[in-house]
From TrEMBL:
Subcellular location: Cell inner membrane
Chief location bin: membrane
Keyword Cytoplasm: no
Organism lineage string: Bacteria, Pseudomonadati, Pseudomonadota, Gammaproteobacteria, Pseudomonadales
Protein name from the UniProt record: Phosphate ABC transporter ATP-binding protein
Length: 114
């Protein structure tokens, strides 16, 4: 069975760091094989690395969306910029998750997250 789309909704939220790495490796491999994945996550470094498109949501509404480069390097929403500062820290190191998740999708592949 080969679905056209796989949805990952906070699949790493309750996992230990080693298992998180294993899950992210599987997701990366699926996208490299051309699988469309929709991912809701607080793993911002991974999101930046793997995503074609990023949607930042707050209270169920899309605050900002664009390419991964645009969202992570040049966010236009102060709320998005604030979230990234907290999530990544000023030094760029990952901090504890806060705020609402990003909804990530790949334009050439489908990914779904609920």
């Amino acid at each position: 069975m080969r679905p056209e789309l796989i949805l990952f909704d906070e699949v790493t939220s309750a996992l230990d760091p080693e298992t998180v790495g294993e899950v992210l490796t599987v997701i990366r491999e699926l996208t490299e094989e051309g699988m469309t994945c929709l991912l809701v996550t607080h793993e911002m470094r991974f999101a930046e690395e793997i995503s074609d498109r990023v949607y930042f949501t707050e209270n169920g509404r899309i605050v900002e969306h664009g390419s991964a480069e645009q969202i992570f390097q040049r966010p236009t929403s102060e709320r998005t910029a604030e979230f990234l500062r907290h999530a990544l820290g000023e030094s760029g190191r990952r901090q504890a998750p806060v705020g609402d998740p990003f909804l990530l999708s790949n334009i050439s592949r489908y990914s779904l997250s609920v």
